[in-house]
Design brief:
single chain, five-stranded mixed β-sheet, alpha+beta, Cytochrome p450
């Protein structure tokens, strides 16, 4: 029996900061799933990365062995505070999830959808009328701010400020600029504190406002700690801004190159929800979410030592050919799509998944209604680790005739 191999001091199986094209990362991950599915990188001080679906889901389902409280993303920036519920393990995280989950029910999404559709229709209508647009810069980074202004009962100028600083924060992480990460992170905490102070002075209905609900929560008869409420609000304000900004452009870049699929979804819009779910599998933006081993553990024949960080590369796991037949390609109505983990799984699965799906569905519905065709009209530029996706997608639109 072969003994499990620990990490070697100079072992470097892949470079998360390599320059990427639209297809290069997935080509690398496919090769790693076959050759080195439990890989080691020396970047960011050294970490493990899991590329197979089975390994990723096993870690997600075992919070006794793998913790999120030490490091929840690669790279780690230790100067930031803890941000529930993502940075906490059960049972501590449960009090926060219990409050948060109430705001992402089907009923709440139905009530929010008309406002979301109004924002999407107005923004996309302006871009289609213009004829050409960088859909990433002009829509994917703008639309979430409008949605979150409504969701969090914020003035639009503040939501736009959060989007701007969030983008600066993510760019700083991607280029490993510690000082800029510190600066932008402090600004985001300041905004979260401002929102909390405003709710303390003029509380809204805790059944309607998430920040007020966190302040009003009394698990065990006691309020949630002030520093934890601050971290939680900061996490909620930012998380929903980042993934849509890279995913929407990616989804539309693919659709722009697949005219038959465009025509199908225009003629059968009831199939758009299935298309959204397949896009989320095919182009999952999350690849840096991480756990830390609580003890020495063997995964895929590799010995991972206690306290070593492990990146869970959802971007790769959701194309694993041992789970998804022809997983590198788009397949509408894929039979086992429920096995995909675009939003993670287990106790830390993203609570905002229903809102994200609704935003993406509405985006496709509104764009396809307003166009007869759209195509890529320039160079596609990619984001960098920890997200996977596009940061620039120039599109040209053929407007549909206005309704008579």
């Amino acid at each position: 029996m072969t003994a499990p191999r620990p990490a070697q001091p100079d072992e470097h199986d892949f470079d998360p900061l390599a320059e990427e094209t639209f297809t290069s990362a997935h080509e690398t991950y496919r090769e790693l799933r076959g050759r080195c599915p439990v890989a080691r990188s020396q970047t960011y001080g050294g970490f493990w990365a899991l590329f197979r679906h089975a390994d990723v889901t096993a870690v997600l389902s075992d919070s006794d062995t793998f913790t999120t409280s030490v490091q929840n993303v690669v790279p780690k920036f230790a100067f930031t505070g803890r941000r529930p519920p993502l940075h906490l393990d059960p049972p501590e995280h449960t009090d926060y999830r219990r409050v948060i989950n109430r705001f992402f029910t089907r009923g709440r999404m139905t009530a929010l959808e008309p406002a979301v559709r109004g924002h999407a229709g107005r923004l996309l209508g302006e871009l289609v009328a213009r004829g050409e647009s960088d859909i990433s810069a002009d829509y994917a980074r703008v639309f979430p701010a409008h949605v979150f202004a409504d969701f969090f009962h914020l003035p639009l100028h503040l939501a736009e400020r959060i989007e701007q600083i969030s983008a600066e924060y993510v760019r700083a992480i991607q280029v490993v600029d510690d000082e800029e990460v510190k600066r932008s992170s402090r600004l985001l905490y300041d905004i979260a504190a401002e929102v909390i102070d405003h709710r303390r002075d003029a509380a809204l209905d805790p059944g309607d406002d998430l920040t007020t609900a966190l302040l009003a929560a009394r698990p065990g008869g006691e309020p949630l700690p002030d520093d934890m409420v601050l971290g939680c609000v900061r996490q909620l304000l930012v998380t929903g801004m980042v993934a849509p900004s890279v995913f929407i452009g990616t989804m539309l870049a693919h659709l722009a190159e697949h005219k038959d699929l465009q025509r199908l979804l225009r003629s059968a819009p009831e199939r758009i929800p299935a298309a959204v779910d397949e896009y989320l599998r095919l182009y999952t933006p999350y690849r840096g979410m991480s756990r830390t081993a609580r003890r020495d553990v063997v995964i895929g024949g590799r010995l991972i030592r206690k306290d070593e960080p492990i990146a869970l590369v959802y971007t790769s796991a959701n194309r694993d050919e041992s789970v998804f037949e022809d997983g590198e390609n788009f397949a509408l109505d894929r039979p086992n799509l429920r096995e995909a983990i675009p939003f993670g799984a287990g106790i830390h699965a993203c609570p905002g998944a229903p809102l994200a799906r609704m935003m993406l569905r509405v985006t496709l519905e509104e764009l396809l209604t307003r166009t007869t065709d759209f195509h890529v009209a320039g160079e596609i530029l990619m984001a960098r680790w920890a997200e996977w996706g596009t940061r620039s997608v120039p599109l040209a639109f053929e407007p549909a005739a206005p309704p008579s």
